[in-house]
Amino acid sequence: MILVTGGLGMIGAHTARALLDLGQEVVVTTHRRTEVPSFLAGRVIVEPLDVTDRDAFLALGARHDISDVVHLAGSVPGENPVDFFRTDTSGLLNALDAARAWGVRRCAVASSLGVYIGRSETRWHEELDLPTTKLPHLIIAFKKAVEPLAMHSLQGSGVQPVVLRIGTIWGPLVDPESPFFYIPPYISAVLRGEEPKPLSADDGGDCCYAPDAGRAIALLTTAESLAHNVYNVSSGRAYTNRDFADALQTITPGLQLDLLPGRQGGPGVDPYLDIARLTDDTGFAPAFDVAQSVADYVAWRAKNPR
After folding, report:
1. Residue 29 near residue 184, CB atoms below 8 Å
2. What is the full per-residue pLDDT of the chain (306 aa) written as tens digits?
3. Is residue 147 part of a domain?
4. Do 204 and 241 form a contact (C-beta atoms < 8 A)?
5. Residue numbers of the domain that contains 148
6. What is the CATH classification number for the domain harbouring 291?
7. Does 114 share its domain with 195?
8. Strand pairing partners for 204?
9. Domain co-membership, 201 together with 163
């Protein structure tokens, strides 16, 4: 049985779904969210858990025969950054402690494409050295710290650490007004019949549809063997705002979206995650391009609020 913490969140839920589709048994944890997505209803075991409670975390191993751990649970920073770091570090260390105590095969932890910020390349791959630079968000700062903590905590334990450098993920269950990615609010405005604020046509970069991201994580969790400990998780393709506008106009009769010419920052290309390592080691390839993801998401939102 595979444990997915934060398994009712967007990435966690799609990871759980992909694991189920691969024939795995899955237990997910949730802290504040209680609604089980329709695609998981009746298919997973749901365990309420505050991941900062070490005893409660370890007790899961007495109730379930857990073979692998995917730690995706996390919080949103408040006013005090120390409180945020304390909370999420406690959850991470408890997940790593549990993985060691249970003797699981593999423990995957969530990092971020943000760890590459400061690199001048546009194709970000795992062999790049991570720069020391000012980061735009506390979550990225924490994710950058996750990597050495996970690698060193599991060293010599027999548990394989897998660091997931997760890209910009969106899709079913994303916050429709997400402060982290402007495309969901843009689409939400169109779905309300409003005219969204014009975007620069050639701005863009990395993104991946949530079902694809979940499948990538599931493949990394279940692969018979992995040649590496760090993997980018995304589509491996850069998008532009023009791609999203064209996709929305294609499926919405009469819709005309205005775009600003070029890029806000002038000529150039926005960075994206290279997934050659992920593909080589798991066979992963994204099932959704921008047009397919937009059509699927709009159909989902017709029946679901997020």
Report:
1. no
2. 999 999 999 999 999 999 999 999 999 999 988 899 999 999 999 999 999 999 999 999 999 999 999 999 999 999 999 999 999 999 999 999 999 999 999 999 999 999 999 999 999 999 999 999 999 999 999 999 999 999 999 999 999 999 999 999 999 999 999 999 999 999 999 999 999 999 999 999 999 999 999 999 999 999 999 999 999 999 999 999 999 999 999 999 999 999 999 998 888 889 999 999 999 999 999 999 999 999 999 999 999 999
3. yes
4. yes
5. 2-167+210-233
6. 3.90.25
7. no
8. 240
9. no
Distance CA 47, CA 67 (A): 16
- Identify the residue whose tokens are 């049985």: 1
What are the structure tokens assigned to 267, written together? 């000529």
C-alpha pair distances (Å), 208 with each of 152, 172, 187, 237, 293: 29, 12, 15, 8, 9
Identify each DSSP E strand in 75-185 by its residue range.
106-112, 123-124, 160-166, 169-170
CB of 223 closer than 8 Å to CB of 284 = no
Distances from the Cα of 25 to the Cαs of 100, 132, 211, in angstroms?
20, 40, 18
Distance CA 198, CA 170 (A): 20
Residue 90 belongs to a domain: yes
Which of 297, 168, 157, 287 has its CA nearest to residue 219? Answer: 287
Overall pTM > 0.90: yes
CA 93-94-96 angle, to 5 degrees, is 65
Answer whether residue 79 is part of any domain: yes
Looking at the structure, tell me whether residues 79 and 142 fall in a common domain: yes
Residue type, position 23, single letter:
G
User: Which CATH number characterizes residue 151's domain?
Assistant: 3.40.50.720
3-state secondary structure of 289: coil
